[in-house]
Amino acid sequence: MNLIENLNWRYATKKMNGTPVEQSKVDQIVEAARLAPTSSGLHPFKIIEVSNPELKKLIQPIAFGQSQITDASHLLIFAAYDEYTTERVDAVFAQQEVERNLPKGFANDYKNNLLAQFQSQSKEQQFDHAARQSYIAFGLAIAAAAELRVDATPMEGFNNAELDQLLGLNELGLRSVTILALGYRDADNDWLVNLKKVRIPKSDFVISKN
Questions:
Q1: From 39, 60, 63, 85, which residue has the greatest number of CB atoms within 10 Å?
Q2: Tens-place pLDDT, residues 31-67
Q3: pTM of the predicted model, to two decimals?
Q4: CA quadruple 71, 151, 129, 99: dihedral positive or negative?
């Protein structure tokens, strides 16, 4: 199998059969997200991994009753920083210095310019930037799931504020962005499973400037 074949195999699963996904596969999907590139290497988001059935039941009404929430084996909730604090940015550069064996303060000029840019923005603008970084990882997680033949449903249809409250994300300086439900398709009861994948034709998708 190759990536293109696996992306053609995947679809936004509408009905899952409740079969548990092997934790080793979930770990690989999470690792793909962790390895995602992010702006300035800031990695300004976390993944909340939910497999507890009772917690999934509490999340379901927040997600407008969608069955994938409780039928899924695992939910991966991507939550972005609510702002870029000096402490958060300092921690990233300090880790880089240690792990790359760089002199202390090696990238201070770059870091300080970055902080100045963020400090000129509103908290909402900073969150929007962090949320965009989380979407890069979200896409890689979807691709990794397809490569492992784990079904995945990308979900934005939920009340973010209610989910944040339920999971205590505000206290962690996080705001939910997306949910990725992982499981295995219920092929007998999913209306979408056998329908043709439809995408924009390449001729309309790519604007060539050659």
A1: 63
A2: 999 999 999 999 999 999 999 999 999 999 999 999 9
A3: 0.96
A4: positive
